[in-house]
Amino acid sequence: MTFDAMDFRRALGCFATGVTVITARSAGGTPVGITANSFSSVSLEPPLVLWCLDKGSERFARFDAADHFAVNVLGAHQQDLSSAFASYEHDAFPETPVETWETGAPILTDTLASLDCRIETRVDAGDHVVYIGRVLRLETRGDTPPLLYFRGRYGHIKGA
Ligand SMILES: Cc1cc2nc3c(=O)[nH]c(=O)nc-3n(C[C@H](O)[C@H](O)[C@H](O)COP(=O)(O)O)c2cc1C
Protein backbone atom coordinates (compact mmCIF):
# COMPACT_ATOMS: atom_id res chain seq x y z
CA MET A 1 0.00 0.00 0.00
CA THR A 2 1.26 3.47 -0.84
CA PHE A 3 -0.76 5.28 1.84
CA ASP A 4 -1.33 5.05 5.58
CA ALA A 5 -4.45 5.44 7.73
CA MET A 6 -4.02 9.21 8.03
CA ASP A 7 -3.73 9.59 4.24
CA PHE A 8 -6.90 7.51 3.84
CA ARG A 9 -8.84 9.59 6.37
CA ARG A 10 -7.60 12.82 4.77
CA ALA A 11 -8.74 11.68 1.31
CA LEU A 12 -12.16 10.58 2.59
CA GLY A 13 -12.57 13.91 4.40
CA CYS A 14 -12.36 15.72 1.05
CA PHE A 15 -15.79 14.36 0.21
CA ALA A 16 -18.28 16.86 1.68
CA THR A 17 -21.38 15.25 3.17
CA GLY A 18 -24.49 16.14 5.06
CA VAL A 19 -24.92 14.98 8.65
CA THR A 20 -27.56 12.60 9.97
CA VAL A 21 -28.58 11.13 13.30
CA ILE A 22 -29.41 7.44 12.89
CA THR A 23 -31.79 6.06 15.51
CA ALA A 24 -33.28 2.72 16.54
CA ARG A 25 -35.16 1.27 19.51
CA SER A 26 -34.41 -1.90 21.44
CA ALA A 27 -37.08 -4.55 22.01
CA GLY A 28 -37.35 -3.15 25.55
CA GLY A 29 -38.09 0.32 24.15
CA THR A 30 -34.76 2.03 24.92
CA PRO A 31 -33.76 4.47 22.15
CA VAL A 32 -30.26 4.57 20.66
CA GLY A 33 -28.86 7.26 18.35
CA ILE A 34 -25.59 8.09 16.64
CA THR A 35 -24.30 10.90 14.43
CA ALA A 36 -23.40 9.49 11.01
CA ASN A 37 -22.28 10.91 7.67
CA SER A 38 -22.00 7.52 5.94
CA PHE A 39 -25.65 7.74 4.87
CA SER A 40 -26.28 7.26 1.15
CA SER A 41 -29.15 6.65 -1.20
CA VAL A 42 -29.04 3.21 -2.87
CA SER A 43 -32.13 2.54 -4.99
CA LEU A 44 -35.23 4.46 -6.07
CA GLU A 45 -37.35 1.38 -6.88
CA PRO A 46 -37.57 -0.14 -4.36
CA PRO A 47 -36.60 2.78 -2.10
CA LEU A 48 -33.37 1.73 -0.38
CA VAL A 49 -30.79 3.66 1.64
CA LEU A 50 -27.67 2.67 3.57
CA TRP A 51 -25.42 3.72 6.42
CA CYS A 52 -22.29 2.19 7.98
CA LEU A 53 -21.62 1.55 11.68
CA ASP A 54 -18.23 1.02 13.30
CA LYS A 55 -18.16 -2.44 14.93
CA GLY A 56 -16.07 -0.89 17.70
CA SER A 57 -18.86 1.53 18.66
CA GLU A 58 -20.19 1.21 22.19
CA ARG A 59 -23.64 1.42 20.49
CA PHE A 60 -22.97 -1.40 18.00
CA ALA A 61 -24.77 -4.22 19.89
CA ARG A 62 -27.91 -2.10 20.32
CA PHE A 63 -28.10 -1.08 16.66
CA ASP A 64 -27.26 -4.55 15.43
CA ALA A 65 -30.04 -6.14 17.51
CA ALA A 66 -32.67 -3.96 15.82
CA ASP A 67 -34.48 -4.88 12.57
CA HIS A 68 -34.88 -1.22 11.65
CA PHE A 69 -33.32 2.26 11.73
CA ALA A 70 -34.38 5.83 11.05
CA VAL A 71 -32.31 8.45 9.24
CA ASN A 72 -32.76 12.03 10.47
CA VAL A 73 -31.08 14.69 8.29
CA LEU A 74 -29.72 17.64 10.29
CA GLY A 75 -30.12 21.33 9.45
CA ALA A 76 -27.42 24.00 9.64
CA HIS A 77 -28.72 25.04 13.09
CA GLN A 78 -28.24 21.53 14.55
CA GLN A 79 -24.47 21.29 15.11
CA ASP A 80 -25.08 20.92 18.87
CA LEU A 81 -27.43 18.00 18.21
CA SER A 82 -24.78 16.40 16.00
CA SER A 83 -22.17 16.78 18.75
CA ALA A 84 -24.60 15.42 21.34
CA PHE A 85 -25.32 12.24 19.36
CA ALA A 86 -21.60 11.81 18.60
CA SER A 87 -20.71 11.97 22.31
CA TYR A 88 -19.66 8.93 24.33
CA GLU A 89 -21.33 9.90 27.61
CA HIS A 90 -24.22 12.22 26.83
CA ASP A 91 -27.77 10.87 26.36
CA ALA A 92 -29.35 13.40 23.99
CA PHE A 93 -32.81 11.81 23.91
CA PRO A 94 -34.34 13.49 26.99
CA GLU A 95 -34.01 16.95 25.34
CA THR A 96 -34.92 15.82 21.79
CA PRO A 97 -38.56 15.72 20.63
CA VAL A 98 -39.34 12.37 18.95
CA GLU A 99 -42.25 10.55 17.32
CA THR A 100 -42.67 6.86 16.46
CA TRP A 101 -43.87 5.76 13.02
CA GLU A 102 -43.88 2.29 11.41
CA THR A 103 -40.74 0.65 12.81
CA GLY A 104 -40.45 2.00 16.35
CA ALA A 105 -37.26 3.96 15.58
CA PRO A 106 -37.28 7.43 17.19
CA ILE A 107 -38.11 10.06 14.55
CA LEU A 108 -36.43 13.42 15.31
CA THR A 109 -39.23 15.77 14.30
CA ASP A 110 -37.15 18.98 14.26
CA THR A 111 -34.87 17.85 11.39
CA LEU A 112 -34.84 18.52 7.61
CA ALA A 113 -36.07 15.04 6.76
CA SER A 114 -36.67 11.64 8.39
CA LEU A 115 -36.76 8.21 6.75
CA ASP A 116 -38.13 5.25 8.70
CA CYS A 117 -36.51 2.02 7.43
CA ARG A 118 -36.74 -1.76 7.82
CA ILE A 119 -33.33 -3.46 7.44
CA GLU A 120 -33.20 -5.59 4.25
CA THR A 121 -29.50 -6.48 4.15
CA ARG A 122 -26.47 -6.33 6.45
CA VAL A 123 -23.04 -6.41 4.83
CA ASP A 124 -19.99 -7.22 6.93
CA ALA A 125 -17.37 -4.81 5.60
CA GLY A 126 -14.01 -4.60 7.34
CA ASP A 127 -14.35 -2.77 10.66
CA HIS A 128 -17.88 -1.56 9.79
CA VAL A 129 -21.26 -3.14 9.05
CA VAL A 130 -23.31 -1.67 6.20
CA TYR A 131 -27.05 -1.56 6.88
CA ILE A 132 -29.29 -1.34 3.82
CA GLY A 133 -32.87 -0.43 4.67
CA ARG A 134 -36.14 -0.17 2.81
CA VAL A 135 -37.83 3.17 3.41
CA LEU A 136 -41.36 2.60 4.76
CA ARG A 137 -42.27 6.19 5.55
CA LEU A 138 -40.64 9.59 5.19
CA GLU A 139 -41.18 13.28 5.75
CA THR A 140 -39.34 16.37 4.50
CA ARG A 141 -39.73 19.62 6.41
CA GLY A 142 -39.36 23.20 5.18
CA ASP A 143 -36.47 24.76 3.32
CA THR A 144 -33.85 25.12 6.09
CA PRO A 145 -30.26 24.76 4.77
CA PRO A 146 -28.33 21.59 5.68
CA LEU A 147 -25.49 20.99 8.14
CA LEU A 148 -22.36 19.93 6.20
CA TYR A 149 -19.20 18.01 7.17
CA PHE A 150 -15.93 18.52 5.28
CA ARG A 151 -12.28 17.80 6.22
CA GLY A 152 -13.28 16.94 9.79
CA ARG A 153 -15.21 20.16 10.36
CA TYR A 154 -18.79 21.32 10.21
CA GLY A 155 -19.69 23.69 7.40
CA HIS A 156 -22.59 25.59 5.92
CA ILE A 157 -23.64 26.49 2.41
CA LYS A 158 -22.50 30.08 1.82
CA GLY A 159 -25.40 32.50 1.53
CA ALA A 160 -27.94 29.87 2.64
C1 LIG B 1 -19.94 14.20 11.52
C2 LIG B 1 -19.75 12.82 12.10
C3 LIG B 1 -20.05 11.71 11.32
C4 LIG B 1 -19.91 10.41 11.82
N1 LIG B 1 -20.26 9.34 11.04
C5 LIG B 1 -20.20 8.09 11.53
C6 LIG B 1 -20.65 6.97 10.76
O1 LIG B 1 -21.10 7.12 9.64
N2 LIG B 1 -20.56 5.75 11.32
C7 LIG B 1 -20.05 5.54 12.59
O2 LIG B 1 -19.98 4.38 13.03
N3 LIG B 1 -19.64 6.58 13.34
C8 LIG B 1 -19.71 7.85 12.86
N4 LIG B 1 -19.33 8.91 13.63
C9 LIG B 1 -18.84 8.67 15.01
C10 LIG B 1 -20.02 8.54 15.99
O3 LIG B 1 -20.96 9.59 15.85
C11 LIG B 1 -19.57 8.57 17.46
O4 LIG B 1 -18.84 9.72 17.71
C12 LIG B 1 -18.69 7.41 17.83
O5 LIG B 1 -19.34 6.20 17.46
C13 LIG B 1 -18.46 7.44 19.35
O6 LIG B 1 -18.08 6.20 19.83
P1 LIG B 1 -19.13 5.24 20.63
O7 LIG B 1 -20.21 4.89 19.66
O8 LIG B 1 -18.28 4.11 21.04
O9 LIG B 1 -19.70 6.03 21.81
C14 LIG B 1 -19.44 10.21 13.14
C15 LIG B 1 -19.14 11.34 13.93
C16 LIG B 1 -19.29 12.61 13.42
C17 LIG B 1 -18.99 13.82 14.29
Structural class: mainly beta
Write the H/E string, N to C.
HEEEEEHEHEEEEEE
Supply Rg. 15 Å
**Count of discrete structural domains:** 1
Strand order of the largest sheet: 3-2-6-9-10-5-4
Helix content: 10-25%
Tally of alpha and pi helices: 3
Bound molecules: flavin mononucleotide
Gross morphology is: globular
Largest sheet: 7 strands, antiparallel
Measured between the Cα atoms of the first and last residue, the distance is: 41 Å
Strand content of the residues, in percent? 35-45%
The top level CATH class name: Mainly Beta
Description of the molecule:
InterPro entries: Flavin_Rdtase-like_dom, NADH-dep_flavin_reductase, Split_barrel_FMN-bd. Keywords: Oxidoreductase. Pfam families: Flavin_Reduct (PF01613). By secondary structure, the protein is mainly beta. The protein has helices spanning 5-13, 60-65, 79-86; strands at residues 17-18, 20-25, 31-36, 40-43, 48-54, 68-73, 98-100, 106-108, 113-125, 128-140, 148-150, 153-155. The strands form 3 sheets. A 7-stranded antiparallel β-sheet has the order 3-2-6-9-10-5-4. The protein is globular. It starts with a helix and ends in a 5-residue tail after the last strand. The model has no long low-confidence stretch (mean pLDDT 96).
